[in-house]
# Entry
Amino acid sequence: MALRLPIVISGRAEDGSAWSEPTETDDISTSGALFHLNQKVSRGERLYLRAHRPDGAPIEVTAVVIRIAPAIYGTARVGVQIAESAENWLRLFVSWVADEQPVVDAPDSESSPPK
# Structure
């Protein structure tokens, strides 16, 4: 599902130093996400994703890089599959999808005129 969700990705560089990069998702699903990164990563690498539900509650999950493709301006499009805290990711996904849907009020039977 094409959904722009602000996230922060973090991991470890080849020299062992920690890095962190804010970005946003291009696509999101119940099992993973696709986003752009400036940081170089490798297939199979474990990354940490942080995001917030619409109500502001933070979510942190561990993900594994399963796809890397070149993108504009030297960035890469990175696809990840959620490895740990999949339940937290599913809650995040459902909360954002539900937040994107218009609210439809159910007719109030008490205030409706009798037929």
